[in-house]
Amino acid sequence: MLLVGVLPLLVAWKAPENSCDFVAKPHHPDPHKLMQEYLRRDFRGDFTSANAWFDSAIMCPGHVPGWDAATIVASYSIRDSRIDRDTAHLTVDYLQLGTTWSDGGVKIDPGKRTIRFKLEKTPFGWRLENHFNNWHISLPSALGTSKIKPNDRKRLEATAARLQY
Length: 165
Prior knowledge:
Layout: H1 2-12, H2 31-44, H3 52-57, E1 69-83, E2 87-101, E3 106-122, E4 125-128, E5 135-138, H4 139-145, H5 150-162
Parallel strand pairs: 1-5
Antiparallel strand pairs: 1-2, 2-3, 3-4
């Protein structure tokens, strides 16, 4: 019975190439919940190192580069979503403080940033499309996971206070 319901989706779905390392196991039956969990884990800084949950949440974990930069954010929210039968688009607003690099460098650049995420339904559940240029981590995550210098820490904390973090 299950195969009958899955067969049309298997025929229509084009599997990613082998170098993609697609996780072909059932995960993430709800695109909105997947996005909420992705945002929570990203904010926490989980993806600044290898992460099995992340690999199960995206289309091509084999094509994601290592982290060189992370956007430091005070908050995020899903503003808009459109979910169809096999694709979903969710718009996420971030309150950005700045950027940090893996070597500890920091650029203060506060403001509102918006990203539109695309998700695709596969025979194994929903997956985020790959378009990751950097992570969106909280200030405590940034201070705990990178080599930020004391003066830059103070500047970030002052920026967060001005934005009523």
